[in-house]
Design goal:
Order of helices and strands: HHHHHHHHHHHHHHHHHHHHHHEHEHEEE
Strand content: 5-15%
Largest sheet: 5 strands, mixed
Distance between the termini: 71 Å
Structural class: alpha/beta
Number of strands: 5
Radius of gyration: 25 Å
């Protein structure tokens, strides 16, 4: 027991080191700027605790950031730290998931280790986005759904209801935890005595889970902006009525895109590990089938109904596969054949084999921690987070410049955009500076807004553009500095209004 506890503590400590190291190395991302700014506003004004609903986003992650902001001063660091703490919860859940599914503490420990080095997790544990918290709830929901079908206990049902309620308070994709509840019956003891009575008991407990989770979610109805959630979901997923007009038109393209992102993050060698485990671990075929359903069904439905897709949408789906992969490595390590046992367990061969199979993971981790611009992650994520207009390259430098200029007196800052990276990326750092007035403009028309020109006559005035890569020649502005977005072709530009 002491060795187990020591191993868990070491894994948690290494996890914290890898997650906090160079935490702000990646520039702030557009959605991060929005979420962090929401958390700041909600933190200082209780009447805006549901502010995320104004954009159709559930508020639980914003509430978590509000708490963490009281610990760390840097708002971006605090927002990303909230995801790190969620990742700790995911890691702990994977230990118990591996222990419960495969009845082995070793599998649980290996599942924790795989999460530690999983590049997909390393990316989203270090970003102030909701997806890490969604993943945590997914792991714990799967664990308690398994416990529910095995124990048929009321306390398990009540805890599961709270977990699922928290998941759908975080993001709409948390509803998958509820939709997948009936599939836990794959583990139901169908051939034991009193099957009918046990099945009725499970149905009653499942109803409790559904009612409790929906009751928790219903607190969002207190906000007049609750209806915007449905409108926002329709941007990313086809509503059923709209989907019926072209039911299979986008399935192939969506599936190929999602599968490509999955293979880049999970890697083909690790997919091969899953296949090997399925072949050799027939004793646990029901458990493996359940984890496959938890990955495959949401994956297929997202491909079927998806309208606007990003790699982060499939992150939570991949987490149930980690205990499966852990079981494969554990089986290699503890194989009963004496010859293989001697070759593997009593030599460095096992470690070498793991390095070969997980080599792509470890290389990607190293790049993410030292130079993320060279990390082999999907191109969609490279563009969004590092190289294209949604990335926040130049924000940190612009903030430093404006703070220095504000020491000389009041200044006015006009930004291209009223929502998103600009102006939120500036506001999270400068909102308390009384010498800086920030105002967003959208769109930036030609000629330049008369309000900006009039401000320039009264005080130093700056214009910051992000999506606009060149200003019209007639604009009375002079370039102060341009900041390239990673290795891409986009720039964030800072101008002085003459």
């Amino acid at each position: 027991m002491k060795k187990l506890l020591a191993a868990v503590v070491v894994l948690f400590l290494v996890f914290l080191v890898t997650r906090f190291y160079n935490l702000t190395l990646m520039p702030i991302f557009t959605d991060e700027a929005i979420y962090v700014r929401w958390a700041q506003i909600a933190n200082y004004d209780a009447s805006w605790r549901f502010i995320s609903l104004t954009d159709g986003k559930q508020p639980f992650f914003i509430w978590l950031m509000m708490v963490v902001m009281r610990i760390f001063k840097d708002p971006l660091f605090a927002g990303r730290a909230a995801s790190i703490f969620a990742g700790l919860g995911t890691m702990g859940g994977l230990f118990f998931l591996g222990l419960t599914i495969f009845r082995s503490k070793g599998v649980g420990l290996l599942a924790m280790f795989l999460y530690l080095v999983y590049p997909f997790a390393l990316v989203y544990d270090r970003m102030a986005l909701m997806d890490g918290l969604v993943g945590m709830f997914c792991v714990w929901a799967l664990l308690f759904e398994i416990l529910l079908v095995k124990t048929l206990r009321l306390d398990i049902a009540l805890i599961l209801g709270m977990i699922i309620g928290g998941s759908i308070l975080t993001k709409s994709s948390g509803l998958f935890n509820l939709y997948l509840l009936p599939f836990s019956l794959i583990l139901f003891p169908w051939f034991e005595k009193n099957v009918a009575r046990k099945l009725l008991l499970w149905l009653g407990l499942a109803v409790i889970v559904v009612v409790e989770s929906q009751a928790i979610y219903s607190i969002l109805r207190l906000s007049p902006f609750f209806h915007i959630i449905t409108e926002k979901n329709a941007i990313f997923v086809y509503p059923f009525g709209e989907w019926l007009q072209h039911p299979l038109r986008f399935l192939e393209g969506n599936f190929k895109g999602l599968w490509n992102w999955f293979t880049v993050y999970f890697s083909w060698p690790m997919i091969g590990v899953l296949v090997w485990a399925a072949i050799t671990g027939r004793r646990y075929w029901r458990e493996m089938l359940l984890t496959l359903v938890w990955f495959g069904l949401p994956f297929f439905l997202l491909a079927l109904f998806g309208k606007v897709l990003y790699p982060r949408f499939i992150f939570f789906m991949t987490l149930p596969l980690l205990p499966w992969a852990a079981f494969a490595f554990f089986k290699i390590y503890c194989v009963s054949n004496k010859l293989v046992y001697a070759l593997v367990k009593k030599s460095p061969l096992f470690a070498a084999g793991f390095l070969v199979l997980a080599g792509l993971w470890l290389y990607t981790d190293w790049r993410l921690l030292t130079n993320p611009y060279l990390a082999p992650i999907p191109e969609s994520d490279q563009d969004q987070y590092l190289n294209a207009w949604p990335a926040g390259g130049g924000v940190k430098e612009t903030v430093a410049f404006l703070e220095q200029e504000s020491k000389k007196g009041k200044i006015f800052v006009a930004t291209e955009g009223t929502f998103g990276l600009l102006p939120a990326g500036l506001e999270i750092y400068l909102y308390q500076n009384k010498n800086i007035e920030i105002k967003g403009f959208w769109p930036l028309n030609d000629p330049l807004s008369e309000e900006i020109i009039q401000k320039a006559k009264l005080q130093p005035t700056y214009l910051i553009t992000n999506r606009l890569q060149a200003t019209p020649e007639k604009w009375p502005v002079s370039l102060v500095s341009r900041f390239r977005k990673g290795v891409g072709k986009d720039f964030l530009s800072l101008y002085k209004v003459n």
